[in-house]
Design a protein that fits this description.
The protein is α/β, with parallel strands linked by helices. The protein contains twelve helices and eight strands. The longest helix is centred in the middle third of the chain and has 14 residues, at 119-132.
Amino acid sequence: ERSTGEVMQEKIQVLEVELDNCSAKEAMKRVVEHMDIERLNVVEMVSMNTLARFQEAELDAALFEDFDLVLPSDRGILQAAGIHDERRLKEVDDLLFIKMIMRYLQKNHISVFLLSETEDLRIQFENYINEEYSNLKIVESTSLEERGSSDDMLLNVINGLEVDCILSTLSSPLEESLISKNKSLVNARVWFGFGPLIREINKEKKGLQKFTIQKHR
């Protein structure tokens, strides 16, 4: 069981994007530290699909450099970086980090703002949380479809509510451009970009494939 090579290599690079190479437990420890910092810390889960979209849109991968923690959300990224440790791959398959985050937010009564792209996805997101993490302290749940696309309006809502944490399921590259433009203006501790992951979990549970199919067309 030799993991020394991985310990030494803290970053991995796939399709020009640099990601953090750490276990769910290590990532969780860093998030807890972020919660004590008086500025917005950005944690994003990135899939192969995210990276491909980024390249298709010819966007600068340097955008991710402003984020505090960029984590692979599918085994394809780890394998592309030459990581084949079965334990790490299983953690990613099981979305262990997301489960740890949600339990942490729930247990510590941290105030949460939910952000989705469409009303359909917002309802899915809320249903998932109500079923799995019913004690999560949701202050507000909104979609860009409902709020309109103005960044200012969204910032006013988030900052007016004084939440600690934003859970977002926006797709790439919308998520990254929204954060990079507004990072210094958001009055919260941590922004979690889950991308389409919550939809994936929900799809497995409910067989709601049509949403994901529409999304990736």
